[in-house]
Amino acid sequence: MSSALIKYFNIARSVRTATVKSFLTAPKQKWQVWSAAAVQTPHALHTSVPRQDLMEFFDDKKHWSEIEVKVGRAWRTDELRIKSNKELHQLWFVLLKERNMLLTMEHECNDKMEIFPSPERIDKVKISMENLETVVRERNKAYHLLETGETGERPRRPVKNAFGLQVNYKTCEHVLPPFMNLKWIKSRNIGFGGRAVNRFLLKYREQLYNAKRMAKNRSRNEVVMILRRNPDFDLEVLRRKFPDVNIEKLRNEDKARGHYVPNVGV
């Protein structure tokens, strides 16, 4: 090996040693101090209950023997719209953690044949998460409409499923066209037919018609009872509450007349 190459190696070794010594002796930066503190104290940056075991999937022990747990209502969309994206992100994980805990407690109570306290908490958490998703979707649509002129969501189109019922199908991109993609055709199975499906549709439409007719009859009977007990009831209130009922026609029927003697000729 030549003397010049040996000289270069010695210089490089001395420079590397000096750099390592200067790095070790240099004062620590602020982020290094924070990192060391976080390593020494694992719970310094926690924002939730400082527990790392499986007990986070269970409710507080003081609620185990309770029949009712007092909680608040679900989050409304108007309240979530004034939150920032960071706050919505944090709230989503709080609700997700709460939902996992409640489902675990419900399963454990069913396994132990005990009463799950305040089961409506699960519904409130689900409603809050649905409202949060609605607000986030509104913001995403507004952003994409402002930037690109499109909603940014997957396009949908109404199709008939295997039972002949209309559903919204979310389209997506595929490498192969539809007539060549046999796997997509077998998995989707869009379309209906056959005598059994037609009979099902006939029964289904009859069931929907009967439900609509019964709801209309219930509203009509309720209006009749109100007019029979209170002949001077405000008709505008009835029209707003029962828009599908003909109030003027019911007033002239015998069923709507109460058991009282009108003051005729007074």
SSE layout and pairings?
Blueprint: H1 3-25, H2 30-40, H3 77-81, H4 85-111, H5 120-147, E1 156-160, E2 166-170, H6 182-188, H7 195-229, H8 235-241, H9 247-251
Antiparallel strand pairs: 1-2
Sketch the major β-sheet: 2 strands, antiparallel
In total, how many beta strands?
2
Radius of gyration: 35 Å
Structural class: mainly alpha
Question: Would you identify the regions where 5 or more consecutive residues have pLDDT less than 50?
Answer: 28-47
Question: What topology, given as strand order, has the largest sheet?
Answer: 1-2
Coarse shape? extended
What's the number of helices? 9
Give a structural overview.
With 266 residues, the protein is mainly alpha-helical. It contains nine helices and two strands. A hairpin with a 5-residue loop joins strand 1 (156-160) and strand 2 (166-170). Helix 4 packs antiparallel against helix 5. The protein is extended, with a radius of gyration of 35 Å. The protein starts with a helix and ends in a 15-residue tail after the last helix.
Question: What keyword list fits this structure?
Answer:
266 residues; mainly alpha; two-stranded antiparallel ribbon; 9 helices
Gist of the model:
The protein is mainly alpha-helical. Helices cover 56% and strands 4% of the residues.
